[in-house]
Amino acid sequence: MKKFYNRLWQCLLPALLALPALAQVQVGGRVTDALSGEPLPGVSVQVKGTSRGTQTDTRGQFIISGVTPASVLVFTFLGKQPREVAVGALTEISVTLADDNRELQEAVVIGYGTQKKKELTGSITTVTAKDFNKGSIQTPEQLIAGKVAGVSIVSNSGQPGVGSTIRIRGGSSLNASNDPLIVIDGVPFSGQGINGAPNPLSLVNPGDIESFTVLKDASATAIYGSRASNGVLLITTKKGVAGKPKFNFNTSLGVAQRAKEVEVLSAAQFRQYVDSFGTAAQRGLMGDAATDWQEEIYQSGLTSDNNLSVSGSLGGMPYRVSANLLHQNGMLITDRLQRSHLSVNLSPQLFNRHLKINVSVKGAITKAHYANQQAIINAVQFDPSQPVRDTASPFAGYYEWYTTDNTGEITLNPNAPRNPVSLVRMQDNNATVKRSYGNLELDYKFHFLPDLRANLNLGYDISRGNGTTFVPADAGQQFAAGGQNNRFLQEINNKVGEFYLSYLKEIPGIKSTVNAMAGYGYYDNATTNYNYANFNAKGDTISGSVPLFPFDKPQNTLISYYGRLIYTFDDRVVFAGSLRTDGSSRFAPENRWGVFPSAAITWRLNREAFLRNSETLSDLKLRLSYGVTGNQDGIANYSWMSIYGTSTNASMYQLGDKYYYLQSPAAYDKDIKWEQTATLNGGVDFGWFNGRLSGSLDVYFKKTKNLLNTVPIPIGSNFSNQLLTNVGNIENKGVELSLAAIPVQNDRLTWDVNFNITYNKNKITNLTAINNPSFLGNLTGGITGGTGQTIQIHSVGYNTFSYFVYKQVYDKSGRPLEGVYEDLDKNGIINQRDMYRYKSPAPVVFLGFSTRVAFGRWDAGTALRASLGNYMYNNVASNFGVRRSIINPLGLLNNSTTDIYKTGFYNNQYQSDYYVQNASFLRMDNLTLGYNAGALFGSQVRLRINAACQNVFVLTKYKGLDPEVNGGIDYNLYPRARTFVLGVNLDF
């Protein structure tokens, strides 16, 4: 027996000695991005060879129990290289994950679902939060300006909260909307403006956004049918992740300053000019002041942007709650905006994760005081020799051009501009806008058939905008009416209901995967506009302003059926097809339904045997697609119906001793129907050196037919001489190239570069129902000056919005000759037949470039944009840069732009091509510098500090204020600021 115990002890002793090595311990740590140094939430941390694991929280931190020193932890994250770390004696592990070509496995958001990036058949680009533009970003679309080939994003002005003009592969319409469809967490936005808000997207907090996915070709967009001709922007917001509550707070302070001002005559130059060319009476009109009116109306604008979020899980339910408070003062004095935003996301999963629920509710309130922007152009025009204040002035002490007769009657000069400072200081324009949007999404994976999913999405988007405008009775701007005291109120109630079934099945026996989806959608958009009378400052009703009806309630409804099939063979070839049919209340029953199909094929060449083992090639994919999309946005709700309008109070008809309202018919076309855009797209995606160099090249051709176009019609054929109908075709064709590179990547230094270039050619191919070679085109592009002046035209064979001008003649010194133009038809007479189409506002080529360098805890980056071949009509110079503007025969003096020295024009030459100027530019949008301070004093609070400058510089030949003006006519532009920003980010 003794021998038995001795042998047993000899066997157990090694095992007992090994017990300390096998003791289970708890390990924690943090995972960060190798490029930016920022924490990575949602990273999978798995004990190799087991099912035990966890995920990192919003700070990139993790804790995992039950591991031994012999365990190996595996860190994986979509789009990053996986890493394995042996635990050994470690209890705290810091891991950095670098970018990897395995991002091709990443699920990309597409319409009604997701798809692996490697299997995409359409032209789709995703931009995630780590690649967003940095700095003081108040509206979401500015996060990706210059980041995506084929996408042009131009801020409409420098006003607080103002939006941008977004164009994806050029405009496809003349009268309908050219804006892309925007979908936030599955809820399509109607694109409708909200009274009191300069931009509907200004009520969306950029800090809540996780990613943008841009759908560009018809293969990607056709699943959205009638609203997708201009592309689709899918916005995904941040969601909660499992774990303990984690907080993030970031705050930034920005100072906005004018980058440039309109070049006008100084007071000294103005006096010299009037002394040289004015009469004695005109010289006597000059004052003794030296006022810089632009300096008087502008200020340095301060912006404070604060975000606080908490995420984690409660009872196994992930959640994220965030709040945002923005205060922004505009550069125009008295201009200010305050936005409060609250967001709640809940993501419970029930029935053993077969039912996934996502609840998203977002709300925002903006309170704004809008400055009178008429002051901007008046500051250019107003006489610099006059003072801001005049103690003898009856207009609240502000100088104005007026006369007083023998009876003391005061008469304002109706041809004179009003005092710019008075315009701003004496108008009180306040607005409050409340908006809430969100959805409930239920995604159920059937227990008896897990390959089949049912998805129900119920969404809403409601808003209420109200405000008042008050101008005192003694203000020059409303002196004749005795001031102003008006109000407005608008309510919007949009509803969304969608249901679809999705079936995803892998069939290994035939190396195939089938992904099928079919669904139904209901979309209702209703607006209530309340009508109010106009009042003067005392509260007296303005005669003829009392409305006949208390409110107006326009409404439109869209019903849709859609389906899609994606078939993948052997992970090499992907076929995709979709079909959507939409029915819109904006068209008559017989034309109500439109059908929008698409088909596409992708061939993954790198999966073929002859390339599969390549050590340098990481991706090579060919794509070809064709599809048809529609457009019905931007037109009236009832264009197909016979509508009668009620006359105003001033137009009532007297019959006996009573007055009656008149009913007048509006022109209509009962056969009006959808615009349709057909797109052919070919593309190649490529990657080398394990994804260190990657990119895509796309070639596309878009043709829009049945344009919703307002055309002249014969008198007597309808109830007007113009009619909105389906006439005309537009073509867009172009090439897009995107490149991404990581030239340097190691433990201390990472450098990445992104570049994109787009060529787009736009042309009108038809504008009339029958061939009419003598038809010049449709005049458009109204300008300031004269009566009914236009400067642009839509003509067959030319760009949309081409400039329609006379060809200026110059003397030997290069100075333009006033009123002298080339006789293009050689008949000895200068008339409209000598006008020609010259250039357009649309760029032929536009580019984007960004780069970022991270060294240790420091990082720096910049983003630039360029636009080539775009031209601008300088309406400021054409209206004010003439002698007649200064030496005005109507009893006043005005200032002029310095362009008067270059032309010497006495009278305005509005139609001269001299004022159509090259507006190509290179702009540095932002320059950033950041420092990751890490944990503070050994605590769990982590600090990051960043500084940025926005609108750093612009290089351009354009002579006006800014080469980027939507529409191509520069007149009353609120200047874009140069902004300096300092920010702090805390994780705890």
* Radius of gyration from CA coordinates: 32 Å
**What is the overall silhouette?**
globular
Low confidence ranges: 1-5, 7-22, 101-105
Strand elements, count? 59
Q: Strand count, sense and closure of the main sheet? A: 22 strands, antiparallel, barrel
- Helicity level, as a percent range? under 10%
Average the pLDDT over all residues and give the rounded result. 89
Count of helical stretches: 10
Distance from first to last alpha carbon? 63 Å
Beta-strand percentage? over 45%
Query: Structural class, from helix and strand content?
Result: mainly beta
Brief account:
With 988 residues, the protein is mainly β. The protein has ten helices and 59 strands.
Structural commentary:
- The protein has 988 residues and is mainly beta.
- The protein contains 10 helices and 59 strands.
- The chain has a 22-stranded antiparallel beta barrel. The chain has a 5-stranded mixed β-sheet with strand order 10-15-16-13-14.
- A hairpin with a 6-residue loop joins strand 19 and strand 20.
- It is globular and about 105 Å long.
- The two termini are 63 Å apart.
Secondary-structure topology with pairs:
Blueprint lengths: L1 H21 L2 E9 L10 E4 L5 E3 L5 E7 L4 E5 L6 E4 L5 E6 L9 E4 L2 E4 L7 E5 L22 E5 L8 E5 L12 E4 L2 E2 L20 E7 L2 H4 L10 E6 L8 E13 L8 H11 L2 H4 L9 H5 L3 E14 L2 E13 L6 E11 L2 E2 L4 E15 L4 H8 L20 E3 L5 E3 L7 H6 L2 E18 L6 E20 L12 E24 L4 E19 L20 E2 L2 E15 L3 E12 L8 E12 L12 E15 L12 E3 L6 E3 L2 E3 L2 E3 L9 E14 L4 E13 L2 E5 L9 E5 L2 E17 L3 E18 L11 E5 L7 E5 L7 E4 L2 E3 L5 E6 L14 E3 L6 E11 L2 E11 L2 E4 H6 L2 H4 E2 L3 E2 L6 H4 L12 E3 L2 E15 L6 E15 L12 E2 L6 E11 L1
Parallel strand pairs: 1-7, 13-16, 52-58
Antiparallel strand pairs: 1-4, 2-3, 2-5, 5-6, 8-9, 10-15, 11-12, 13-14, 15-16, 17-18, 17-59, 18-19, 19-20, 20-22, 21-22, 22-25, 23-24, 25-26, 26-27, 27-28, 28-29, 28-30, 30-31, 31-32, 32-33, 33-38, 34-37, 35-36, 38-39, 39-42, 40-41, 42-43, 43-50, 44-45, 45-46, 46-49, 47-48, 50-51, 51-56, 52-55, ...
